[in-house]
Amino acid sequence: MTIILKRYSDLVIFWPDADQPSRYHLDVRELILDGGSPYEIIMDCVAQVDDDSSLVVHAVFEPKPLIRQLHRMGLAVEVA
Question: Could you give the CA distance from residue 9 to residue 21 in angstroms, rounded to a whole number?
């Protein structure tokens, strides 16, 4: 699977996991610290990830509203 991430910002980093090909990482910490909102970027990536793949979102806080939204969409969510 190939995920195509639009170039939203130089503050967003996206990469495939080298150890687990079905896992992708999205780092939005710098965007948040700069005052930006990562919601649309995260949801765009979520929409592109296959059911057998996972997306690890790196943030500076636990995004409880996002977690609730993902649960409503029927997605499994883990917080580490």
Answer: 24
CB atoms within 10 A of CB 45: 22
Rounded average pLDDT over 16-45: 93
| Amino acid type, 78 | E
Using alpha carbons only, give the angle 28, 29, 32 rounded to the nearest 5 degrees. Answer: 85
pLDDT of residue 16: 87
Residue whose pair of structure tokens reads 């610290």 in the numeric block? 33
Rounded-to-integer distance, Cα 1 and Cα 25, Å: 14
Q: What is this structure's pTM?
A: 0.86
Q: What share of the chain is helix, strand, coil (3-state, %, to 5)?
A: 30, 20, 50
Amino acid identity, position 20:
Q
Contact 11, 41 (CB under 8 A): no
Between these two residues, 1 and 30, which has the higher pLDDT value?
Answer: 30
